[in-house]
Specification:
Blueprint (H helix, E strand, L loop, with lengths): L18 H16 L5 H13 L3 H8 L26 E5 L2 E4 L4 E2 L2 E7 L2 E5 L4 E2 L3 E9 L2 E7 L3 E9 L2 E2 L13 E9 L2 E7 L2 H29 L1
Parallel strand pairs: 1-4, 2-5, 3-6, 4-7, 5-8, 7-11, 8-12, 9-11, 10-12
Helix pairs in contact: 1-2, 1-3
Amino acid sequence: MADLPDVPQDRTPQLRASNADRERVAEILRTAAAEGRIDLDELDERLGAAYAAKTYADLVPLTRDLPVAAHPGPPMAVDNRIGGAPTSSGGVAVMGGFHRKGRWVVPPLFVGFAFWGGGELDLREARFAEAEVEIRLFAVMGGFEVIVPEDAEVIINGVGIMGGFDDRAAGPGVPGGPRIKVTGLAFWGGVDVKRLPPKEEVERRKLARKQERRQARLDRRMQRRLDT
């Protein structure tokens, strides 16, 4: 596979992608199809999404399930989020709640406990004290919601006893990104882990979908007028 241009290390998910970035991801997808990793229908679908991508956050999911060996480099790099002094080492919720969100520094080990209460951990705008961190949670008749960045590698290894420990967000990330391990126990409670884009990107996508629906309505009205 031919080498492709490296991507600068300071790009973040909300920044606009260039034509070169789109072509770079398209080349990765074509190589994956040639190796039999994705079929032709999926190749067409992903290529369409790649060429329609506006930001790096749009490009990352298109190659997330492909092995690192198939990547000459990630569509984006997030090394600038690694490092810093932890701002919190844990949280306790007893018949109440706590949250950690916004700009905070995740420690190498964060321990949370909830009894008849709950906790929210939003890591999308966070920095990470080390490249690999562990979120260890214990929910007893309570619950936790953990929101991880779309481009992070996520490993979930928890136990649910008469409760649930959701592992649907587990999966690979981009090289150089944070590695997040979520472990612990849910007893008559639950731990929900979600992958979400940055809040700004969520709003941008909502606005884009709204504009697309509006344009579709206008197109239908115009077509009806032409048909009459």
